Amino acid sequence: MQLFNALWNRVSLPRYERKPGLVLINGLAEQAETWFRNLPEWRNHFEIFLPNLLTFEGETLQQRIEQGLPLSVDYLVDQLHLYITTFLQNPPYYLGGSSTGAKVVVEYAARYPRMVSKLVLIGPSGVATEERMPIVEGVRRSDARSFVESVFYDLSQVDPGLIRYYHERLESRAWKRGMLRSIRGTLGHSIRDKMPLIQQPTLVMCGREDRIIDPVQAESACAMLPNGKFVLIPKCGHAPHQEKAQLVNREVIRFLKEPLPKLVPEPTPVVEEQVKEQSA
Protein backbone atom coordinates (compact mmCIF):
# COMPACT_ATOMS: atom_id res chain seq x y z
CA MET A 1 0.00 0.00 0.00
CA GLN A 2 2.83 2.43 0.82
CA LEU A 3 4.43 1.72 -2.53
CA PHE A 4 1.10 2.29 -4.27
CA ASN A 5 0.59 5.61 -2.48
CA ALA A 6 4.10 6.74 -3.34
CA LEU A 7 3.60 5.89 -7.00
CA TRP A 8 0.16 7.55 -7.04
CA ASN A 9 1.51 10.77 -5.53
CA ARG A 10 4.38 10.79 -7.98
CA VAL A 11 1.96 10.50 -10.90
CA SER A 12 -0.86 12.75 -9.71
CA LEU A 13 0.87 15.61 -7.94
CA PRO A 14 1.89 18.52 -10.18
CA ARG A 15 5.57 19.23 -10.56
CA TYR A 16 7.03 22.62 -9.88
CA GLU A 17 7.61 24.74 -12.96
CA ARG A 18 8.45 28.41 -13.24
CA LYS A 19 6.30 29.77 -16.07
CA PRO A 20 6.94 33.06 -17.88
CA GLY A 21 4.84 35.94 -16.59
CA LEU A 22 1.99 37.36 -18.68
CA VAL A 23 0.44 40.61 -17.44
CA LEU A 24 -3.03 41.27 -18.88
CA ILE A 25 -4.71 44.66 -19.00
CA ASN A 26 -8.40 44.87 -19.79
CA GLY A 27 -10.19 47.62 -21.64
CA LEU A 28 -13.47 49.10 -20.44
CA ALA A 29 -14.77 45.62 -19.75
CA GLU A 30 -13.45 44.52 -16.37
CA GLN A 31 -10.71 41.91 -15.92
CA ALA A 32 -12.81 38.84 -15.10
CA GLU A 33 -15.32 39.73 -17.83
CA THR A 34 -12.56 40.22 -20.41
CA TRP A 35 -10.44 37.08 -20.21
CA PHE A 36 -12.76 34.31 -18.95
CA ARG A 37 -12.49 32.36 -22.23
CA ASN A 38 -8.70 32.63 -22.35
CA LEU A 39 -7.37 32.13 -18.84
CA PRO A 40 -7.96 28.36 -18.50
CA GLU A 41 -5.81 27.68 -21.57
CA TRP A 42 -3.21 30.40 -21.05
CA ARG A 43 -2.59 29.36 -17.44
CA ASN A 44 -1.23 26.06 -18.73
CA HIS A 45 1.66 27.98 -20.28
CA PHE A 46 2.08 31.27 -18.39
CA GLU A 47 1.88 32.73 -14.92
CA ILE A 48 -0.98 35.18 -15.32
CA PHE A 49 -1.18 38.54 -13.54
CA LEU A 50 -4.40 40.57 -13.63
CA PRO A 51 -3.97 44.06 -12.15
CA ASN A 52 -7.32 45.78 -11.81
CA LEU A 53 -6.37 49.26 -12.99
CA LEU A 54 -9.93 50.32 -13.88
CA THR A 55 -12.08 49.56 -10.84
CA PHE A 56 -15.01 51.81 -11.64
CA GLU A 57 -16.50 51.65 -8.14
CA GLY A 58 -13.12 51.55 -6.43
CA GLU A 59 -12.35 54.11 -3.74
CA THR A 60 -9.19 55.47 -5.40
CA LEU A 61 -10.86 55.96 -8.77
CA GLN A 62 -13.91 57.61 -7.21
CA GLN A 63 -11.65 59.92 -5.19
CA ARG A 64 -9.87 61.02 -8.36
CA ILE A 65 -13.23 61.91 -9.87
CA GLU A 66 -14.21 63.90 -6.76
CA GLN A 67 -10.87 65.74 -6.86
CA GLY A 68 -11.22 66.54 -10.57
CA LEU A 69 -8.13 64.50 -11.47
CA PRO A 70 -7.96 62.82 -14.89
CA LEU A 71 -8.48 59.11 -15.48
CA SER A 72 -5.99 59.21 -18.31
CA VAL A 73 -3.80 56.65 -20.04
CA ASP A 74 -0.75 58.22 -18.38
CA TYR A 75 -2.37 57.66 -14.98
CA LEU A 76 -3.05 54.01 -15.85
CA VAL A 77 0.56 53.53 -17.01
CA ASP A 78 1.75 54.88 -13.66
CA GLN A 79 -0.57 52.47 -11.85
CA LEU A 80 0.67 49.55 -13.94
CA HIS A 81 4.30 50.41 -13.16
CA LEU A 82 3.47 50.64 -9.46
CA TYR A 83 1.85 47.19 -9.61
CA ILE A 84 4.72 45.58 -11.53
CA THR A 85 7.49 47.05 -9.41
CA THR A 86 5.63 46.30 -6.16
CA PHE A 87 4.26 42.80 -6.72
CA LEU A 88 6.38 41.23 -9.48
CA GLN A 89 10.09 40.51 -9.40
CA ASN A 90 11.36 38.81 -12.56
CA PRO A 91 11.24 41.18 -15.54
CA PRO A 92 10.95 41.31 -18.45
CA TYR A 93 7.32 40.25 -18.88
CA TYR A 94 4.87 39.50 -21.62
CA LEU A 95 2.20 42.21 -21.72
CA GLY A 96 -1.24 41.77 -23.23
CA GLY A 97 -3.87 44.46 -23.65
CA SER A 98 -7.42 44.50 -24.96
CA SER A 99 -9.00 47.65 -26.43
CA THR A 100 -8.09 50.54 -24.10
CA GLY A 101 -5.72 48.20 -22.30
CA ALA A 102 -3.65 48.09 -25.50
CA LYS A 103 -3.05 51.82 -25.17
CA VAL A 104 -1.71 51.24 -21.68
CA VAL A 105 0.68 48.41 -22.57
CA VAL A 106 2.07 50.20 -25.63
CA GLU A 107 2.75 53.35 -23.62
CA TYR A 108 4.27 51.23 -20.87
CA ALA A 109 6.58 49.42 -23.30
CA ALA A 110 7.66 52.75 -24.80
CA ARG A 111 8.37 54.19 -21.37
CA TYR A 112 9.90 51.09 -19.73
CA PRO A 113 11.27 48.94 -22.57
CA ARG A 114 13.48 46.79 -20.33
CA MET A 115 10.42 45.58 -18.42
CA VAL A 116 8.75 44.08 -21.49
CA SER A 117 9.81 41.17 -23.70
CA LYS A 118 6.75 40.79 -25.97
CA LEU A 119 3.39 42.50 -26.52
CA VAL A 120 -0.04 41.19 -27.52
CA LEU A 121 -2.60 43.79 -28.62
CA ILE A 122 -6.19 42.58 -29.10
CA GLY A 123 -8.65 44.96 -30.74
CA PRO A 124 -6.28 47.82 -29.86
CA SER A 125 -7.80 51.25 -29.39
CA GLY A 126 -5.74 54.32 -30.17
CA VAL A 127 -4.39 53.06 -33.50
CA ALA A 128 -7.01 54.72 -35.71
CA THR A 129 -7.68 58.39 -36.37
CA GLU A 130 -11.20 57.96 -34.98
CA GLU A 131 -12.70 55.70 -32.33
CA ARG A 132 -16.41 55.02 -32.33
CA MET A 133 -17.94 54.26 -28.94
CA PRO A 134 -21.36 52.62 -29.37
CA ILE A 135 -21.14 51.31 -25.81
CA VAL A 136 -21.60 54.83 -24.42
CA GLU A 137 -25.29 54.96 -25.26
CA GLY A 138 -25.82 51.60 -23.63
CA VAL A 139 -24.19 52.88 -20.43
CA ARG A 140 -26.17 56.11 -20.40
CA ARG A 141 -29.46 54.27 -20.94
CA SER A 142 -28.49 51.50 -18.51
CA ASP A 143 -29.07 49.05 -21.34
CA ALA A 144 -26.81 46.11 -20.59
CA ARG A 145 -27.73 44.17 -23.72
CA SER A 146 -26.83 46.96 -26.15
CA PHE A 147 -23.74 47.74 -24.07
CA VAL A 148 -22.43 44.18 -24.50
CA GLU A 149 -23.70 43.43 -28.00
CA SER A 150 -22.17 46.59 -29.48
CA VAL A 151 -18.72 44.99 -29.38
CA PHE A 152 -19.73 41.65 -30.94
CA TYR A 153 -20.28 40.64 -34.54
CA ASP A 154 -21.65 37.16 -33.82
CA LEU A 155 -24.27 37.70 -31.13
CA SER A 156 -24.50 33.96 -30.50
CA GLN A 157 -21.09 34.32 -28.82
CA VAL A 158 -22.41 36.73 -26.18
CA ASP A 159 -22.40 34.93 -22.85
CA PRO A 160 -25.73 35.52 -21.03
CA GLY A 161 -23.79 35.88 -17.81
CA LEU A 162 -22.11 39.01 -19.16
CA ILE A 163 -25.46 40.68 -19.75
CA ARG A 164 -26.65 39.75 -16.25
CA TYR A 165 -23.44 41.08 -14.71
CA TYR A 166 -23.54 44.42 -16.52
CA HIS A 167 -27.25 44.79 -15.83
CA GLU A 168 -26.36 44.70 -12.11
CA ARG A 169 -23.42 47.06 -12.52
CA LEU A 170 -25.40 49.62 -14.52
CA GLU A 171 -27.76 50.00 -11.57
CA SER A 172 -24.86 51.57 -9.64
CA ARG A 173 -24.45 55.31 -10.17
CA ALA A 174 -20.85 55.16 -8.96
CA TRP A 175 -20.00 52.40 -11.45
CA LYS A 176 -21.60 54.28 -14.34
CA ARG A 177 -19.80 57.47 -13.38
CA GLY A 178 -16.48 55.63 -13.17
CA MET A 179 -17.04 54.03 -16.56
CA LEU A 180 -18.06 57.26 -18.33
CA ARG A 181 -15.22 59.27 -16.79
CA SER A 182 -12.75 56.57 -17.82
CA ILE A 183 -14.03 56.74 -21.39
CA ARG A 184 -13.73 60.52 -21.37
CA GLY A 185 -10.19 60.39 -19.97
CA THR A 186 -8.79 57.78 -22.36
CA LEU A 187 -10.78 58.17 -25.60
CA GLY A 188 -8.63 60.75 -27.39
CA HIS A 189 -5.31 59.11 -26.63
CA SER A 190 -3.48 57.91 -29.75
CA ILE A 191 -0.63 55.40 -29.72
CA ARG A 192 0.20 55.52 -33.44
CA ASP A 193 3.23 57.72 -32.83
CA LYS A 194 4.56 55.20 -30.30
CA MET A 195 4.45 52.22 -32.64
CA PRO A 196 7.86 52.87 -34.31
CA LEU A 197 9.42 53.03 -30.82
CA ILE A 198 8.32 49.53 -29.79
CA GLN A 199 11.26 47.21 -30.45
CA GLN A 200 9.71 44.16 -28.78
CA PRO A 201 7.97 41.52 -30.93
CA THR A 202 4.30 42.51 -31.03
CA LEU A 203 1.21 40.54 -32.06
CA VAL A 204 -1.78 42.64 -33.16
CA MET A 205 -5.15 40.89 -33.54
CA CYS A 206 -8.22 42.63 -34.87
CA GLY A 207 -11.73 41.63 -35.91
CA ARG A 208 -12.62 42.45 -39.52
CA GLU A 209 -16.09 43.65 -38.47
CA ASP A 210 -14.87 45.74 -35.52
CA ARG A 211 -17.24 48.71 -35.10
CA ILE A 212 -15.04 50.59 -32.62
CA ILE A 213 -11.70 50.73 -34.43
CA ASP A 214 -10.95 50.65 -38.15
CA PRO A 215 -9.17 47.34 -38.97
CA VAL A 216 -7.48 48.92 -42.00
CA GLN A 217 -5.91 51.60 -39.82
CA ALA A 218 -5.02 48.99 -37.21
CA GLU A 219 -3.08 47.08 -39.87
CA SER A 220 -1.32 50.25 -41.03
CA ALA A 221 -0.35 51.00 -37.43
CA CYS A 222 1.01 47.47 -37.06
CA ALA A 223 3.15 48.05 -40.15
CA MET A 224 4.87 50.85 -38.22
CA LEU A 225 6.14 48.35 -35.63
CA PRO A 226 9.75 47.28 -36.18
CA ASN A 227 8.80 43.70 -35.26
CA GLY A 228 5.04 43.42 -35.62
CA LYS A 229 2.67 40.67 -36.75
CA PHE A 230 -0.92 41.45 -37.77
CA VAL A 231 -3.77 38.94 -37.68
CA LEU A 232 -7.13 39.96 -39.17
CA ILE A 233 -9.99 37.73 -37.99
CA PRO A 234 -13.04 37.49 -40.28
CA LYS A 235 -16.61 37.49 -38.94
CA CYS A 236 -15.43 39.04 -35.69
CA GLY A 237 -16.02 42.32 -33.86
CA HIS A 238 -14.15 44.18 -31.11
CA ALA A 239 -13.79 41.17 -28.80
CA PRO A 240 -11.78 38.53 -30.72
CA HIS A 241 -10.64 36.94 -27.46
CA GLN A 242 -14.30 36.04 -26.78
CA GLU A 243 -15.83 35.61 -30.25
CA LYS A 244 -12.90 33.60 -31.59
CA ALA A 245 -11.40 32.39 -28.34
CA GLN A 246 -9.87 29.15 -29.64
CA LEU A 247 -8.10 30.92 -32.49
CA VAL A 248 -6.87 33.73 -30.25
CA ASN A 249 -5.71 31.34 -27.54
CA ARG A 250 -3.75 29.32 -30.07
CA GLU A 251 -2.17 32.35 -31.77
CA VAL A 252 -1.17 34.00 -28.49
CA ILE A 253 0.43 30.84 -27.10
CA ARG A 254 2.30 30.20 -30.35
CA PHE A 255 3.52 33.79 -30.58
CA LEU A 256 4.68 34.07 -26.98
CA LYS A 257 6.45 30.72 -27.09
CA GLU A 258 8.45 31.61 -30.20
CA PRO A 259 12.10 32.29 -29.35
CA LEU A 260 13.02 35.94 -29.17
CA PRO A 261 14.94 37.12 -32.25
CA LYS A 262 18.68 37.26 -31.73
CA LEU A 263 20.07 40.74 -31.49
CA VAL A 264 22.53 41.61 -34.24
CA PRO A 265 25.73 42.82 -32.57
CA GLU A 266 26.66 46.37 -33.38
CA PRO A 267 29.85 46.69 -35.43
CA THR A 268 32.94 47.60 -33.46
CA PRO A 269 33.77 51.25 -34.13
CA VAL A 270 37.08 51.86 -35.88
CA VAL A 271 39.17 54.28 -33.86
CA GLU A 272 41.07 57.04 -35.57
CA GLU A 273 44.52 55.54 -34.72
CA GLN A 274 43.62 52.27 -36.46
CA VAL A 275 42.60 54.12 -39.60
CA LYS A 276 45.92 56.00 -39.63
CA GLU A 277 47.91 52.77 -39.23
CA GLN A 278 46.08 51.12 -42.10
CA SER A 279 46.62 54.13 -44.39
CA ALA A 280 50.33 54.47 -43.55
Keywords:
disordered C terminus, six-stranded parallel β-sheet, about 280 residues, 14 helices, Rossmann fold, alpha/beta
Describe this structure in words.
This protein has 280 residues and is of the alpha/beta class. The protein has one domain: Rossmann fold, CATH 3.40.50.1820. It is built from 14 helices and six strands. The protein has helices spanning 2-12, 31-35, 39-42, 59-66, 73-87, 100-111, 135-140, 144-149, 160-169, 173-186, 215-223, 240-243, 245-257, 272-279; strands at 21-25, 47-49, 93-98, 116-122, 202-207, 228-233. Helix 5 crosses helix 6. 36% of the residues are buried.
Using the 3D structure, state the CATH architecture. Answer: 3-Layer(aba) Sandwich
Extract low-pLDDT stretches: 264-280
CATH topology: Rossmann fold
- Overall shape: it is globular
User: What can be said about the biggest beta sheet?
Assistant: 6 strands, parallel
CATH class, named Alpha Beta
In short:
This protein has helices at residues 2-12, 31-35, 39-42, 59-66, 73-87, 100-111, 135-140, 144-149, 160-169, 173-186, 215-223, 240-243, 245-257, 272-279; strands spanning 21-25, 47-49, 93-98, 116-122, 202-207, 228-233. It is an alpha/beta fold. It has one domain (19-259): Alpha/Beta hydrolase fold, catalytic domain (Rossmann fold, 3-Layer(aba) Sandwich), CATH 3.40.50.
